[in-house]
Amino acid sequence: MSSKVCLGFAAVLLLAAGSAQAATVSTTFNNKITIVGECQVGAISDIDFGSHGILNANIDGTTAINVTCTNATAFSIALDKGLTGATTSSRVMTGPGSPISYSLYSDAARTANWGSVYPSDTVQGTGIGVAQTINVYGRVPPQAAPVPGSYSDTVTVTVSY
To answer: In whole angstroms, what separates CA 146 from the centre of its chain?
Structure first.
């Protein structure tokens, strides 16, 4: 055999051996997630109306509700009447003397009562995928001052979506 033929034969053998080692196989897989409508409520600070003696003028306070809902999820926020058995339009704080009346509103002018009847006195919104701050405006109106001491009430926030 000539040396040219031997070299050509050797090159073909090397190519064949190299391509046998390079064989591969592949497949695919899918990655999935299903997003459902959901809302979460963050921590809420208390409304502290401060320390006062005679209740002869409006005493205002505020807090904020942080609601995070999935994008485009409609929600409604209700505030109950509190622990004292009052109504949502005239809540009361109890303590060592006569109850102290107060109200909660959804607007800074304190004209829109915030209650628990959908949709008449609740606050509605639509989720944007990040936390939204919804302000709560409180007011203690002028009234006969009860005996000195600490007065309080607890209101439950309910988010429906």
So the answer is: 37
Q: Which residues contact 71 (CB under 8 A, 6 or more apart)?
A: 127, 128, 129
Q: What is the mean pLDDT of residues 13-22?
A: 56
Domain membership of residue 9 (yes or no) is no
Neighbours of 46 (CB within 10 A): 11
Of the candidates 89, 71, 74, the one whose C-alpha atom is nearest the C-alpha of residue 128 is 71
73 located within any domain: yes
Total structural domains within the chain: 1
Domain holding 151, by residue range, is: 39-160
- The CA-atom distances, in angstroms, between 55 and each of 44, 58, 83, 97, 147 are 26, 8, 22, 14, 12
Asked whether the predicted pLDDT for residue 40 surpasses 70, the reply is yes
Residue 78 domain-assigned (yes or no): yes
* Residue corresponding to tokens 């505020």: 62
Q: Which residue has the higher pLDDT, 15 or 71?
A: 71
Residue 147's nearest CA partner among 82, 54, 48, 49 is 54
- Would you state the pLDDT for residue 20? 57
pTM of the model: 0.82
Asked if residue 14 has pLDDT above 50, the reply is no
